[in-house]
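Priority: medium. Attachment 1 of 2:
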């Protein structure tokens, strides 16, 4: 139909088309790159939830397992072998002392214990670890000697004990050890307060540390320069 037409216009038909176009515009997707509504309300979480009602029974089961293990290894200690005292690795943790894997061959030799008989009397042996200082070797040697002094060695045959086995009186008082064998004692050094001396007041610690740092940093360059000056004859007395 043209704009200059004189034919009558059906108002109802025009309104009907307008209504249809409005309904079509409402049902279309919203404008923009938005997320499509997709809500999930049927999760069935009650079918996937994990309960812990067996916790008391597991606690009892672990306890019975510990009792069974203790009775199986009796009269030996429940914790197992004797472990050495070692320091943790890296500069961050090397101040902390903990139990290691096993004693070194040098530590066993210094304590007078054979590496073959060590595991037979409850001493762990580590063939890979080595002692790099006497400070780390001496405490473990003392630890071995203390363990050897407290050790009660049962004979393989009670009727025919061999040399080194404990006496009958010691066997009667023997009891199974529960817990760590010779646990490490946490030693905290105590420092008493004292007055600052006059010599300590005169020392400038900041300058001293900076000087030491500079000497370490430029040590190579200074040695190279001194060697070059010596080769050129600079600084020699005429």
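Attachment 2 of 2:
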């Amino acid at each position: 139909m043209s704009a200059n037409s004189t034919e009558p216009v059906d108002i109802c038909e025009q309104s009907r088309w307008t209504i249809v176009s409005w309904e079509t515009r409402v049902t279309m997707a919203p404008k923009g790159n938005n997320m499509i509504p997709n809500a999930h309300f049927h999760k069935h979480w009650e079918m996937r939830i994990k309960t812990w009602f067996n916790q008391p029974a597991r606690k009892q089961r672990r306890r019975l397992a510990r009792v069974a293990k203790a009775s199986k290894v009796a009269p030996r200690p429940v914790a197992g072998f004797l472990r050495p005292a070692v320091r943790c690795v890296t500069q961050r943790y090397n101040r902390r002392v903990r139990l290691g894997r096993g004693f070194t061959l040098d530590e066993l030799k210094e304590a007078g214990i054979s590496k073959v008989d060590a595991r037979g009397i409850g001493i762990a042996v580590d063939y890979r670890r080595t002692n790099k200082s006497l400070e780390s070797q001496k405490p473990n040697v003392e630890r071995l000697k203390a363990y050897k002094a407290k050790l009660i060695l049962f004979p393989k045959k009670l009727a025919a004990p061999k040399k080194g086995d404990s006496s009958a009186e010691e066997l009667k008082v023997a009891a199974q050890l529960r817990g760590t064998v010779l646990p490490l004692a946490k030693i905290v050094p105590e420092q008493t307060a004292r007055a600052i001396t006059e010599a300590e007041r005169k020392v400038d610690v900041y300058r001293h540390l900076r000087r030491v740092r500079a000497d370490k940093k430029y040590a190579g360059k200074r040695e190279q320069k001194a060697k070059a000056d010596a080769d050129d004859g600079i600084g020699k007395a005429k």
